[in-house]
What does this fold into?
Amino acid sequence: MRLIVEHVSHGYGSLEVLDDISLTVEEGEILAVIGPSGCGKSTLLGILGGLLEASRGRILTDGAVPSGSLNPITYIFQDFALLPWHSVAANVGFALEHHRLDAYERKGRVDEVLAMTGLLDFATALPKQLSGGMRQRVGIARALAVKPAILLLDEPLSALDAQTRELLIEEFLALWLAHRTTAVYVTHNLDEALRLADRICVLSRRPGRIREIVAVDAARSERGMAALAPLRERLWRLIQEEARAADREHV
Amino acid sequence: MSEPLRFRGGGFVIGPKPISSCLGGLAVIAIWQAVSSAGWVSPIFLPSPAGIARALGEMALSGQLWRHLGASLQRILLGFALGSAAGLALGLALGLLSHARAAGLPIVSALFPIPKIALLPLFILWFGIGEPSKVATIALGVFFPMAIATYSGVDQVPRTLIRMAQSFDVPTHAIVAKVILPGALPGILAGVRISASIALILVVAAEMIGAEFGIGAFILTAGNLMRTEDLLAGVCLLSILGLAVGFLVSLAERRLLSWR
Ligand SMILES: Nc1ncnc2c1ncn2[C@@H]1O[C@H](COP(=O)(O)OP(=O)(O)O)[C@@H](O)[C@H]1O
Ligand SMILES: [Mg+2]
It folds into this structure.
């Protein structure tokens, strides 16, 4: 499925947060959205998934919902958003509870995604017993269980330490390569964007405007530091200005 | 020249001291008993612990204990059930609905601080001097703290959990049942703890007007007859009742909130 964003602007009361965003997320691509903190990335993602109503503009989906997809547009959250009173398996099953699936089929799907994310041994654990990395694996498993057509990821690795982040990027990439689900990946980490994205959308400071959408042409397997250095340099200059200016604003 | 490093990190750590916690209570009772046995104070003014224990034993044997305890418990349970169910419903409405919150919160805030026992005469006028006025006083006393505890419990459910459920198309009623209620449970149980002690205060006060049975009535009669051993035996019962309620709530918290 493609996602088409047409002239979306958003404000909270008098605070303008997004200014005239237009872009298309193409079928099977990862579009990274990068920009200084507070520029409206989470707001944009909320609008893309129908959790927030844009002040102006509209969102269109294009293309058929793949068969078996229970929740075409699905989130992975920065703070994992796990129900703390549910076990790992129950958290994954929660996403399936309100869909027409018999118990057998539901259990099958839960087991399948737990296996895919390496969580089978943790099925009965409570979130509080897990590390941050394991918790986000549960978040990923829960999203995969509904077989999404579009994944919306809001800084999914920001709450993790650098080493765990590295592990999860690899795992996420491996899972993504197997499905090639259309994805919007919000981050403020340039390296994450460079590793994962087909294109990187750079937003200005608040109110967020599109500064530039940059294609990352190198294949994902050939994205060593050296190969991407010039692109990284160029993106960093774009972001640096905005981040510096945002940093000096009063909140 | 080398010197051992000076340690400066001690203190400010509270650890469990089981022996001290037993000794504290025992010491108080022992001193009390010693003062009474020495005959320094008249037993009318300060009965001895042994005397109080004897009075309790006699109450239990004569069946008085169960009759008074039963009457009080019945009023507490009924009043608590009615008040907390209504408080839970109002608290959910205050927590979930903007209009209910805007309209209801000022009213609740204004009525909450009224000591509900002040309304007992009015309730006696409305419902008569029998059970309903006593139960209504307890119910009203429980109602407001339960409403406020539920409301703040609902408010404390992380928004991101609600958004998560919405993002998986979970219907509204299921979000309330499966996300908001369990998430508000810590707040609700805190409310139960407070309301239970309020119910205990109110039942004693209410039983001091026009009740034949009940711990409050028993204490009042004992006081009027200067039977201070009986009076303090009744007070002991209240203490035990309060401890039992606290224990039950802690048990519920351990079982229902083990995920925290
Ligand atoms: N519900 C809200 N009400 C009012 N202001 C909000 C709300 N959500 C976000 N904001 C403000 O909007 C701006 C953009 O927020 P957000 O989209 O979360 O930014 P980002 O995810 O890029 O850090 C921030 O200044 C934030 O304080
Ligand atoms: Mg954000």
About this structure: Chain A has a mean pLDDT of 94. The longest strand of chain A covers residues 2-12. Residues 225-247 of chain A form the longest helix (23 residues).
